[in-house]
Recover the amino acids of this structure.
């Protein structure tokens, strides 16, 4: 049996003095919404995206930056 996969970006948001429990609730909510639509949670994956410097940055000798993004991976039977 094959699967169809769906990947959605996830970025938790907290206000000052809030902790990881707030982000956990946000992640739980995102997983719950997708599961209501028939998607099975697989994992939270980290992806790094290379951002190259612009022309001026290149002239100044800047290196590429790497930005971390979390992605939630889901699947369901094809």
């Amino acid at each position: 049996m094959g699967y169809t996969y769906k990947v959605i970006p996830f970025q938790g948001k907290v206000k000052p003095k809030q902790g990881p429990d707030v982000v956990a609730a946000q992640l739980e909510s995102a997983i719950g919404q997708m599961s209501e639509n028939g998607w099975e949670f697989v994992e939270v994956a980290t992806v790094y995206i290379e951002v190259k410097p612009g022309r001026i940055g290149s002239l100044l000798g800047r290196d590429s930056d790497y930005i971390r993004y979390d992605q939630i991976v889901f699947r369901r039977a094809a």
Summary: DSSP finds two helices and three strands in the chain. The radius of gyration is 17 Å.
